[in-house]
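Note to self: the last two entries modelled the partners one at a time, which told us nothing about the interface. This time every component goes in together.
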Amino acid sequence: MSDEFDFSSGMPSDEMAQYLQMFVDETSEQLDALVDVLLVLETNPSSHSDLNESFRLIHSIKGAAAMMGLDSITLLTHHLENYFERLRSGIQHLDRPMMQLILKCVDFLRESTEKLRDGEPLRSSPDLLDELMNRENSQEVPAAAENTLDIQGSTEIAKPSEPIAVAESLSEQLVEKRLIIYFDRNIELPELKAELILTRVRELAEITRLSPAMQDLASVVELRTLQIWVRTIRSDAELRAVAEVVGVELLEIDAIDSESSGLHATEVHATDAVDVAPTLVAPVLPSEVSMPPVAVPPETRPTEPVASVEAPTHTTEGQIKVVETVRVDIQRLDKLMNLAGELVVNRARFVQIAHQMSETFKKSGLLGSLRDLSDQLQESLLEDSKTAAITHDQVVKQERRLELQMGINTLQEQLQVLELGRRSFLQLNEAIDQFSRVSDGLQRGVLDTRMVPVGPLFNRFKRTVRDISGELNKSVNLVIHGEKTELDKRMIDELGDPLVHLVRNAIDHGLESEVVRKSRGKPEAGTLTLEAVHSGNNVLIYIRDDGGGINVDKIKKRVLERGIATPSELENMTDHEISQFIWSPGFSTAEVVSDISGRGVGMDIVKTRIRELSGTIEVHSVFGQGTTFVIRLPLTLAIIRSLLFQLNEGMFAAPIENVREIVSVKNRDIISVHGRNSIEVRGEFIPLIDIEDVFDWHKTRYAYGVNPSDVAANETDHSSVIILSTINKKMGLSVSALRGCENLVVKSLDENFTHIQGLAGASILGDGSVCLLLDIVSCIDLAHERLRDRHRVNRKRIESVS
Amino acid sequence: MNKPSNIVQDNLSRKIAQFVAFRIENQSYAFRIEQIQEIVILDQVTKTPQVPDHVEGVANLRGSIIPIINLRKLFGLEIKPVDEDTRTIVVNVGSRTIGCTVDTVSQVVRIAADDIHPAPETVTGHGASYIAGFARVKEQLIVLLEVDELLDPQKLAHVGQATLPDLSKT
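The predicted structure of the combined assembly is written out below.
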């Protein structure tokens, strides 16, 4: 694994590579949590508990990064930590530019963890570091290389109980400290530097432990950090003076609070005693555990601002939920999922075979009539033998009779076997039922393991909304509903980008400027709602804004400019139909192409991404009142309950959610106007569509299996029509025959083939054949498109004739 | 993916390579054996809409759904009904698995590198870069096809349009 890493840019050392995954996962979570806290801090910058929580999170990221040898992360978090330390102690206050900077740092850290995940080399963050340091300097705080203890020592002028004074007064006491030395990555032979430093430190202090160990110094591939545990009476400043030599980029000094003396001997940054204990007994992972998550202020100085740290510290720790979890590679889950899918297909096969066998067995008719026949034969034979026995003369007949008798006996034995077989078959049926239950349960179980709440995904948008609204100078309230709704993990991962796009669009294009809002009598701050709800086998995600809605006139103009449609076509279209043009590639109506949106590459990509998740997206807009996007996603990518039906072209399926009802329509009840058919269902006119109206089928007939014309042959005076519906559209599809409902394991056509518009995928049926799963939303779109095209062609033909 | 020109070199270094030969109409073609996953007899192919003529549809290959491409149609010939000789050669193109229907699969042939001749430029020049070379085995001419070029989704559309070499002259 380490081979992939570029060691020159601070990559983890060999032995740590295995912890990398864990680090990446944990750090991502901590960064998420950090952003949450930061956003709270933004509104309430002096919230102590949140400052502490930020500090704790940054600190633990730093600790973990240091353990992994990820210097660029360690360095940055170190400075961040310094900054939060000052915030916590009230020396500085969180202002807006600083918040911006911190968020940038978080972005950098996030990017870094992503890079680690992908095995890419990390880059350093000189800009961010410079900026951080500048701010530190501008606050007249000693250079960044100072450790937090010294910073306080020399700057907390306002505090009555001067830390330095405390330290000096206690200078006679031996104190355990840890020096962490970060070497400049460019120096040659850092091990020599290390030895030099050790020699110098040894003059002042007693070295109790070293990491890496003395004998290993020369053999460490690239020495980046050196940790020295010392026992000394000297102050940090003195230690710093000897240890800071050319080539040392950063020096940290932790005071280690050993037993009771720590109460006075160490400053507010003293390591939490709880954390120190493992440090001393577990030398293998020193850097991980010895970094204090929070300071424990001595009780003797309750008046100090930091003293209030104590209470929140404990509450935060107490709040940590203990849920036992296992991290599992998602690929393993995918594999399990596929296997469960296969199992369902197999089950379907069993069910089908059993169904076919039941013709033979379950209908007792065959067995019964065979038994009757054999009984009758037996009877007539007996009667025959009685009469024959009287005559005594037909020996030949007697022999025939014996043969017949034997035949009947055999038949009866066979019948018994058959009867046994029938019973076994009934048992088999029971076993299949049982098998079905188990496989269903297994499948559901596997699905459940993949389900995660949508909350964290939504919460990420707090940040996005804040950034974008800041940039665009609009005030936006983000409302989140249904964050506990669960979705497949993979979908959550894939949904991020499309959602970002929609949210950006909503704020940029959707919500009006404050002035306009005021003039329209709306509250100045726009509201953006993210909502997730369950609906049958689907999850619906709403992205709703109370902005201006889609401007149909603008779209018309744009459509004409781009030549996507002709004016006469537009005339015939409803506003809703016209708004659908936003999904066309390269379409954008934004007057100003901003950095955030408006390049028109968005919506079609959003649609594609959602489609890749077997989902659909629709837009509803009321001009002046707002726009709502509805994303409909299957609960799982893998299994969709569907209605199967036969069409001339083969077997098809439609998700049961899209099937509103099935009606039988007499041919004479079909209303045909301008070549378009429709039917009336309870007073509602619904377009009736043939699969030929939806799809282009090439005319080549490859002869496999059922000849399509066979099916078409048995035409009757009425046909079955499936009423398919989406959120706002309906369509009747005439079908040749219905085949019932089944749970289909949906397979992608893209994998080996290509995406076909109008199809959501394919599935393997019990008999091993492939059926195609319709994507109803795009089917309806396709049908509309093609009917329109046909209309256009017809009209042209008429025009050219006249 | 190897370019056709590399194959010839590969073969030169290995001297002998194995090919699976099959017939379409009266012409023999061959795929490199490494590119072939298996040869199957399909009884069910589901027709798919919105695809070119040469795509018969999709079929179930032990739980995977693979597209089936009719090579006759791809080469611009009329289709003929499925008969007992009809076979589907399952090949791997990149990460995709694709089935190719051919009239009949004849045999595995071993062809020495020396016997492989680059196709004349007049043949390969017209978009028919999927022809890796010609080989003469026992007086029979075999057209060696490069699967990756032939079934490349981007190039598939052009195959039908490219004029097939007039093999009677070679």
